Structures are given as structure tokens and as C-alpha cells.
Amino acid sequence: MSCQSCQSCESCHPYAVLTAQRLLPVLRNADADEAVRDARALLAAGCRAVELTTSTPGWAEALARTVPLADAHGRRALIGVGTVTTAAQAETALDGGAAFLVSPYPAPEVREVAARRRAVFVEGGFTPGEIAAAVRAAGAAKVFPAHVGGPGYIRSLRAVLPEAVIIPTGGIRPAEVPDWIAAGASAVGIGGGLPAEPAELAALFGEPAEPCCACRASGGPR
User: Fold this and answer.
1) How far apart are CA 103 and CA 124, in angstroms?
2) Which residues are registered as beta bridge partners of 78?
3) SS3 15
């Protein structure tokens, strides 16, 4: 039984949710209203974890308006904030209820805030050293820009970081996600190319690849 059937998966760690969801939408919008509209559409389609970005004007407002939402199965939405590169942005995002933070490259200031506040931080990097440092700090890394190395690069990283949560992002289309997952990605960040038609969007999130932590631990929904 898939995690989407579980109405009480409130204790799942964001990493487990991302791994189950496989595809992480990354929203870069013209304004807060557009970001909220797109987030609502994704949640209605069965997506649970959505990444807003600080490149969207009014992102803090969009965060405040989306954090209280639930997904199509009644589970609390996990709204993260990406393109976080400063301590001030990190503090604002966490104060606003962000479930996780994401940076596009190594961001020591953000790492310090996340450690102090015990927040989930997916730090970005591209070189093996940057990615390994992020994994040592928090167990996860965003590989950006992923299209430069391709799935083969993820496969090489997975060989030396077998337990890491690895999330390639940048230049990846939704139809290519299975190739990246097969290469060892835990989830894939998608910043463009998501369908606007509700039925097509729902098809992307209709059936998680695996249950989240709560369902996995118990063998079914709690």
C-alpha cells in the first residue's frame, strides 16, 4: 500500500517524503500570487513537498500562505525554500515555517543557521568534494547544475556515497526523471516543464515510487 493512502504520515522526515515522491517541483514565479497558485495545483495533483525559491518576489508571503495547506490526501504540505544563500534568508524561511532549506551551492552561513536551529538543509554543490561535505553535514546534497554531468555523474557519486540523499537539479525535464532515478538519484528537482493540465500533472504524482518512513516502518499506513 502506498504512502498516498496514509492519512497520518505527519512524522515523516522530509528526506523520506522526497525519496518517496521522487520529483521535487522547484517554483520560480513572477510573484507570490503565482507561486501560491502553482503550489496549490501541485498539492491538488498529489504532490506533498514543494520548493518555493527566494528568486520569487514576495516569496516570504507565498511561504506563509502555503505552509498551512494540505495535499490531496489530507497530509500536511511540506513547503521548502530554495535558492537560500544567506543567513537572513534562512532565518526568514524558518521563521515562516519552511520544512526544509535548499541552496544552489555551498552556503556556510545557511549551514550554520540550519545546524543551530536543527533544520533540514539540502546544500548545493557540484564537485565531489562539495557534495561530500554537504552529505557529511546533513546527509543530503543537491547536485547543481545536474545536466552538466548527466545521470552518469550521479551514478559515480552514488558509488562513493551509497547512503546519501542525492537530489540532482538543473536542466532536467519531467520525462527524464526515471533515467536519473535509475542512476541513483534519491529525488530530482524540476524547475520547468511541468504540465499545466491537471490530469497530466496528477499523473506525475499519482503513485509514489515507495512508501514514506511511517508506512515503511509499519508495513502499511498507521
Assistant:
1) 5
2) 49
3) helix
Q: What is the pLDDT of residue 213?
A: 53
| pLDDT tens-digit map of 139-150 | 999 999 999 999
**Residue 121: burial class (beta carbons within 10 Å; 0-12, 13-18, 19+):** buried
| The pairing of beta strand 49-53 with beta strand 78-82 | parallel
Q: What gap in Å lies between CA 128 and CA 164, rounded to an integer? A: 12
For the entire predicted model, the pTM comes to 0.89
Q: Active-site residues: which are they?
A: 51, 142
Could you read off the pLDDT of 26-41 as tens digits, one per residue? 999 999 999 999 999 9
Q: What is the largest CA-CA distance in the chain?
A: 43
d(CA 140, CA 155): 15
Residues 152 and 183: beta-carbon distance below 8 Å: yes
